[in-house]
Input
Amino acid sequence: MGFAALSPSYALTHGGGIFGANSVTIALINSTLSNNSALRSGTGGGGGMRTGIAILTDSTVSGNFATANGGGVYGVVRATLTGTTVSGNSAAGEGGGIWGSNLILTDSIVTGNTGGTVGGGVFADSSATLINSSVLNNTATLAGGGVDAYRGAPRAVTLINSTVSGNTGTFEAAWLGGATVTLTNSTISGNTLTSGIGAGVVSTTTATLTNSTV
Output
């Protein structure tokens, strides 16, 4: 889908703007997904879109809401965003901006999103890789104001030429990493938590920093 603007709409289940089953791939190119709502509580969600594989290129996802998870984008199997801005979305559950498995952000910005529990900007159900991307000024009521990569067991998080800054969480880090955290030419700064540990990075196994600032 290219050169499209979807706004506003709502769903009483999943995928306020766009819904796809777990086996479906949905690609947005040069598109805007805004002011949509998914109103089903519990698992699932996707205020803007919910599908198996979500691919967004040069697009904007803003002002969407989910009663459950993934205020902007909910990618069950994989979420790949390139040159995309995710801003001002909210979820009552996990992932105010994005809820994604095998998440890859390239040349993208995630900013000003709110998670009702964990992962204000991003909740990664599996691995998360950020390349030339920024996660800024997001908020989570509990943990991981910027990026939360913990589901039963911590996941792998990789940042390359990326910035996570100005995010806020209540405890266990404003930016919550995973078992293996790898930072290359990246900056984690200015994040805030009101109690707990690790306002910058939490790693339960291995953290590797190369030419990076925390």
Remarks:
- The first strand starts at residue 5 and ends at 6.
- The mean pLDDT is 83.
- The chain is about 0% helix and 45% strand.
- Residues 2 and 97 are 21 Å apart (CA to CA).
